[in-house]
Amino acid sequence: MHVDGFRFDLASILTRSTSSWDAVNVYGNLTDGDVITTGTPLTSPPLVDMISNDPILCGVKLIAEAWVCGGLYQVGMFPHWGIWSEWNGKKGGRKPWNSINFVCAHDGFTLADLVTYNNKHNLANGEDNKDGENHNNSWNCGEEGEFASIFVKKLRKRQMRNFFLCLMVSQGVPMIYMGDEYGHTKGGNNNTYCHDNYINYFRWDKKDESLSDFLRLCCLMTKFRHQCESLGLDGFLTADRLQWHGHAPRIPDWFETSRFVAFTLVDKVKGELYVAFNASHLPVTITLPDRPAYRWQPLVDTGKPAPFDFLTDDVPEREIAAKQHSHFLDADQYPMLSYSSIILLLSPADDSLFHSTSRAR
Questions:
Q1: Which residues are catalytic?
Q2: Superkingdom of the source (predicted)?
Q3: What is the DSSP string of 238-293?
């Protein structure tokens, strides 16, 4: 049936004991104590054990949403037998592929609603807006709802680009909520389980409308991730390939008040990447790591409108767009707008398409 694997909703329920639990019957000995109360989390739950060691199932993707409505939270502690992945949360001592990374999921706001609403709008569910999560970690960019100023709408699109870029450069398995690639909205409803209508349907008619520019970025960023050897590793990166930066090279600011982070990443295919996030409401000019005989070239800048947010070879006036920052890049600097993120690639200085005349001399 071409099924790659399974994601188990509220998977921690699979670890709880039943009323008929009998450790001796299952394992031949008392592995979890003499008395097991119904619903007690088991360290070696038999069902998860059988799935993990089944000759067919152990070879497919097994993903756990490792919590339940009753408060049992097992992210990072779910019995995994070395093969299960989990929705991202608190985690340690395992591999990048064990983490399913996501910004949005079916529980909560869509990506477009995440940047459009501060509060849930669930009246259509018939429960007086009492259902659904109240803590959404969302920001409407200054105005609540669809009807907003041009400035706010531009900022929202930039924030969507920032979120998607962050997801695509993260170690682990990226999970994209269906419809986010074209900006699907549920009108601020964060609990749409009860709707069998356009709120949950994939809107093919919307995919080709104004937000198709965002779809272009999503496609290009996904392709870029596949091309980068360093963004899909089996193990976590070490200092020989990864360096952290702040506004200046090798001086990261880890204080809670910091709104900027950057890193360089050595990639066996792309050479070296420079990735930076400016989450401040103020623009900033950053200093790039010096690489003698090489020069940083812009690839992605979420602060720019499409198609200049991702500079592919077929972008009209690509050279002109890149040259706008050539005087900064000549000095190993780059200007970033507020709420923006970038990806730069390192290339030999002599081969640079946008190398300024003055520096070439």
A1: 9, 65
A2: Eukaryota
A3: -TTTEEEESSSTT----STT--EEEEEEEETTTEEEEEEEE-SSS-EEEEPPP-TT
